[in-house]
Amino acid sequence: EAGVTQFPSHSVIEKGQTVTLRCDPISGHDNLYWYRRVMGKEIKFLLHFVKESKQDESGMPNNRFLAERTGGTYSTLKVQPAELEDSGVYFCASSQARGTGFHEQYFGPGTRLTVT
Amino acid sequence: RKEVEQDPGPFNVPEGATVAFNCTYSNSASQSFFWYRQDCRKEPKLLMSVYSSGNEDGRFTAQLNRASQYISLLIRDSKLSDSATYLCVVNSISGTYKYIFGTGTRLKVLA
Question: Which residues of B touch A56 (CB under 8 A)?
Fold first, then answer.
């Protein structure tokens, strides 16, 4: 079974430019999450989709970040315009449908974003 | 105060040693608890979910103490391949499944 995939693996852009990150969750996983790790800090939650709906976007830093999950399959995270402090590693994770249980999340390899 | 606190280490231990990591969390309503392992420049990989009664998987044992809001991970007979960062993760309160991460504890197993 294929795991969570993310594209691109690395992106270097200039301040003010736009970048779009893509995440393909594990097939059949309704829950999709975005997280970010900035240098020297812990991984932090950005938002959570259940199918195509945003369940929780409390971690989104500001309105320069836009996440979509059209059709409830893959998701994109767009940063426009990028700022220096947006640099970090962006992880996507997915988990199976709700109900009882642990809802373990499986992470993609991340996109390393550098804003210069 | 951070929601999930871990000693960042590093813990340098010889092969074959037993090592224990601790983690405390601040939200008493937290629902689920996990240990993830992260190798350098890689994604977090699930090591163990932590059950209320404690659980063991081979050389790894996890414990949960809800009264003290404390989670532990014990690694017995350390291998060189255990060298990594171990992330304590707490699943948020009911209604959302977001993870709250600790900063991680670095382990280096020495030959």
Answer: 96, 98
